[in-house]
Amino acid sequence: MSDGTTTRGTSSAAQAGLSNLLHEERRFPPSAEFSAQANGQPDLYDRAAADRVGFWEEQARALHWDTPWDTALEWDAPFAKWFVGGTLNVAYNCVDRHVEAGHGDQVAIHWIGEPGDTRTITYADLQREVAKAANALTELGVQKGDRVAIYLPMVPEAAVAMLACARIGAPHSVVFGGFSADALASRIDDASAKLVITADGGYRRGAPSALKPAVDEAVARTTSVEKVLVVRRTGQDVAWDDAKDVWWHEVVDRQPDTHAYEPHDAEHPLFILYTSGTTAKPKGILHTTGGYLTHVSYTHRYVFDLKPDSDVYWCSADIGWVTGHSYIVYGPLANRATQVMYEGTPDTPHKGRLWEIAQEYGVTILYTAPTLIRTMMKWGEEIPQGYDLSALRVLGSVGEPINPEAWVWYRRVIGGDRTPIVDTWWQTETGGLMISPLPGVTTLKPGSAQRPLPGISAEVVDDSGNPVPNGGGGYLVLTEPWPGMLRGIWGDDARYTETYWSRFPGRYFAGDGAKKDDDGDIWLLGRVDDVMNVSGHRISTTEVESALVSHPKVAEAAVVGATDPTTGQAIVAFVIPRGDAAAATAQGDALVQELRNHVSKEIGPIAKPRQILVVAELPKTRSGKIMRRLLRDVAENRSVGDVTTLADSTVMDLISQQLPAAA
Ligand code: ATP
Ligand code: MG
């Protein structure tokens, strides 16, 4: 078990199992100034190693509890209960207590609409808005335990609605605003939601985009919804059902702006959230109250080094993903952060929009995804270089393994060669960050999430569940329960046990491949399903993709293993060129040859792709993850599978059309 302990020493060069091919040697120690002021110091690791559960109790004490817990952890594998007997209110912890402590005038949210309208919301404003919304939910018949579906654009009401649900103890199920009526209907149905909170529409790429019609369709096809609460955002026409539909501004605005909260049990359900569907049908992941809030506020404070009096924090995720739940709403607000929230897309009205916002608000901490960083690389570094980003002091990455080249670009171009980068590995299921550097402690390695956070126990194991030595590769497992862990799959305990706890009994199987380097640091290698087997060699898609992205002409790459009569599987790569795509495509064969040789040189001849296709776009989920299973369908000449969580379904047609040219 590796409670964060770094072991140096033995490593065998030719480990069986997952490949051990990355040779990333760049190192970035924290600056002395950063370390001196950092929230997280080396002693955190020691304290957590000495008494893991006691360490979590210490973190829980940073919150306000109405009743203290009797037992910190009850572990009846695979079912955990944390802070048993304790009661608290999440909304009180995220809002009211900061106002009571004299911070009512501090800005909680600097909100920026895509068309350029703005709202500034202080903690005192937020307290009033949440109180009104909680009163409105009660008037609409929502009681403790009832489920509420939230289907909103990135407007402040999304955070207000979540907090109001938390306040009255009605678990929310946020559904990403870009999803179809189909996806919404199946999620409403699965959770039997009683109320849907939505908007007429939101702004997307410079135009209003309707939401209400999808809700109408979904509600017509389900039976549980009694009322639909509608925020007016775009002012576009909407169909209206007087029996069901109510306007937010009519019902919420007239409510009293105070609300007496009820403390909830530490294990009371806080929310259900469906996973992004990269590998399979989305699962309704259940999170509860006390352990979850402890985990997200602790990790947000130490990993992002938040200083509530001076930082301006910005997480660019959508509230419909777990990152938005844990690191826009619950973690930052519990820690009294001042944050930026942006409604729109990064290229509207121009490709410098994010950097313009960062400059204007003096953003100090930025948390985003590798897909966005690679997009910025593709657009060219002159764009961010046109803005003053000197206030930035910590950068974060989440969602996929970050290719070392993208990491180094992120630090140099966005971070001014100065900021630490925290590559944070976690999942919807884990609730909060699990494996990540601490920015004031860790000597950073581009492309590696490195060590389990203090309090987290992770291991890399082989097929039979034995820990691999340093230098070896296998499967990532979590070996001890943690406070933010999922409490189950909504309505399906059997699927919970089967999916996460049966592969390695007693341990949580994350579904991701990983390796340990010679220092014992962890490198995530992508989904286990994405690992390729080429002539008996197990090669991770991540490593080949990173080699491709390290070539100056490549902005993004996706790699899959396709069935091959001679090698079992053969590597097929899809690449998006940097800068001028047309010119690169014109180079055609020459570029493909150059890239094949480059991979061979970087990793070895065994990893040389059989085929490389130059494409303009890659299929991604709405949360920006590459959907390799669809590319595998193309590479193996099958019709493409389920595309319902794809951001742009035309991408697959485009790629299929390009296919013959590249053989
Ligand atoms: P589904 O489980 O339905 O297939 P999903 O796994 O894409 O969907 P999420 O919970 O949003 O849904 O994503 C978690 C996954 O994202 C992790 O299991 C891992 O594969 C990947 N991931 C997240 N952060 C990192 C990171 N820093 N490094 C490597 N991989 C990461
Ligand atoms: Mg998953």
Alpha carbon gap, first and last residue = 46 Å
What would CATH call the homologous superfamily of the largest domain? ANL, N-terminal domain
Ligands, deduplicated: adenosine-5'-triphosphate, magnesium ion
CATH classification class of the largest domain? Alpha Beta
Strand content: 15-25%
Identify the strand order in the major beta sheet.
12-11-8-6-7-14-15-23
Overall domain count? 2
Low-confidence stretches: 1-21
Q: What would the CATH topology of the largest domain be?
A: Rossmann fold
Kindly state the mean pLDDT as a whole number? 92
Portion in helices? 25-40%
Radius of gyration from the alpha-carbon trace, in angstroms = 24 Å
Enzyme class: ligase
Pfam family, one: AMP-binding_C
GO molecular function, one term: acetate-CoA ligase activity
EC number: 6.2.1.1
Give an overview of the whole structure.
The protein is of the alpha/beta class. The chain folds into 2 domains: 32-47 and 91-516, 3-Layer(aba) Sandwich (Rossmann fold), CATH 3.40.50.12780; 535-657, GMP Synthetase, Chain A, domain 3 (2-Layer Sandwich). The strands form 8 sheets. An 8-stranded mixed β-sheet has the order 12-11-8-6-7-14-15-23, sandwiched between helices. It has a 7-stranded mixed β-sheet with strand order 5-4-17-16-18-19-20, sandwiched between helices. A hairpin with a 2-residue loop joins β9 (201-204) and β10. α2 packs across α3 and α7 (181-191) packs across α8 (212-220). The chain starts with 31 loop residues before the first helix and ends with a helix. The relative contact order is 0.12. The model is unreliable at 1-21 (pLDDT under 50). Bound molecules: adenosine-5'-triphosphate (ATP) and magnesium ion (MG). Adenosine-5'-triphosphate (ATP) is lined by residues 275-280, 282, 322, 398-401, 423-425, 427-428, 449, 510-512, 524, 527, 623, 625. Residues 275, 427, 511 line the site of magnesium ion (MG). Its cofactor is Mg(2+). One of its GO terms (cellular component) is cytosol. Keywords: Acetylation, ATP-binding, Ligase, Magnesium, Metal-binding, Nucleotide-binding.
